[in-house]
Amino acid sequence: MTFRSSLLAVSLILFATDAMAQDVAAGEKSFNKCRACHQVGETAKNTVGPILNGLFGRKSGTVAGYNYSEANKSSGLTWDDAVFTDYIKDPKGKMPGTKMSFAGIKNEQEIKDLTAFLKQFGADGKKGG
């Protein structure tokens, strides 16, 4: 392998890695699909759906003041990347009986981007928390 072909191979790997990285700005755009029912940030309130501040690491069905379905309260799920990915692809398939009426997001990169966006918000709604 010549230096030039090695450089090309490394460049392709770096490009592919960058293309697959999580994109918070794209995740924020994707969150527009969620915004009709969910809020995030310091002024977030429960609406049709619960606030999504501090989602990752939280047990399902535990946001104070939100009236969850029995399916959500008794699911035993703790939100992490894998659980969120499965759920957001098909909410009613992952959690039969959930009140969440959403067709789902099927695109893996979009889910990664949305995950990165949501992970910015701590339980207090502050970014980086």
Feature tags:
129 residues; globular; mainly alpha; Cytochrome Bc1 Complex, Chain D, domain 2
Question: Can you tell me about this structure?
Answer:
The structure is a single chain. This protein has helices at 3-20, 24-30, 70-73, 81-89, 91-94, 108-119. The chain has 129 residues and is mainly alpha-helical. The chain has one domain (23-119): Orthogonal Bundle (Cytochrome Bc1 Complex, Chain D, domain 2). Helix 2 packs across helix 6. Mean pLDDT is 88; it is low at 6-19.
Short description:
This protein is mainly α and 129 residues long. It has helices at 3-20, 24-30, 70-73, 81-89, 91-94, 108-119.
SS class: mainly alpha
How is the main sheet built?
A: none
Strand-residue fraction? under 5%
Give me the count of strands: 0
Q: What is the assigned CATH homologous superfamily?
A: Cytochrome c-like domain
So what's the overall shape?
Answer: globular
Protein name: Cytochrome c family protein
Keywords: Electron transport, Heme, Iron, Metal-binding, Signal, Transport
InterPro entries: Cyt_c-like_dom (IPR009056), Cyt_c-like_dom_sf (IPR036909), Cyt_c_1A/1B (IPR002327)
